[in-house]
Write a structure and sequence with these properties.
7-stranded antiparallel β-sheet, Jelly Rolls, globular, 2 helices, 23 strands
Length: about 280
Amino acid sequence: MQHKTAVSPKHLPLLDTQGLREEFLIESLFIENKISLTLAEYDRMLVGGIFPTTSVLNFSADDYASLAADHLLLNRELGLINIGGPGKVVVDGQNYDIAPRDGLYVGLGAKIGDFESIDAENPAKFYMCSAPAHRACPTKVIRESESYPERLGTKEGCNDRTIYKYLHPQVVETCQLAMGLTVLEPGSIWNTMAPHQHDRRMEAYFYFDISPESAVFHFMGKPDQTRHMVVRNEQAVISPPWSIHTGVGTGAYSFIWSMAGENKDFTDMDHLKISELY
């Protein structure tokens, strides 16, 4: 398990490109037959990629030890979305079939077992986020068709997109974790435009469906001290509560957003005008 410590906004202007990437970018999430985990100190969010091909995967004792727990969700809840082929997840001894673009919510206290792909030639890729929880909510599969869609943006603004809300009060009960998948329409390249901040919660952006010839430029920082990172396919960005978060692609892409903090109201955000950015 890797750790990313909290960074003060006063420290951000001192970072060069490599320093910025070391502090906020998760470059390798999906490693064949491995579970890759990164703990961000902002709201103690755990971000991971689970990529079973020929092996069945489980969380390890070392993972639990890093959290001072005897199992992963002793004090946590977890959400995941499968961006690969069909797979299976075992929770409390029960098998859950997770099809492509399906999600799964697992509540406080539940014990997670095996992660498995149905077909090694078309393996599952489980992108997961976990956050501390103070109450238990039932485990639930969220089918892609059950997610709550919201259309936002305009073609003229190059940000015409649909936000599919998976871990959202209108879909599933959670303690504090929120999670969803955003798909941009052809010709639209900006996400989360106009940008915003929300001091009540941090966020993680996981970018995927990016071609090898393309990239996403992710912008972060205080409104008057913005910085950018070049993000490739299947990489994630940790976004602190004090930071803006928006991105623009050189081609088509999708992304999964995850939030944790004291408020899971999706509309709780402090909008910014483009004229306020520097």
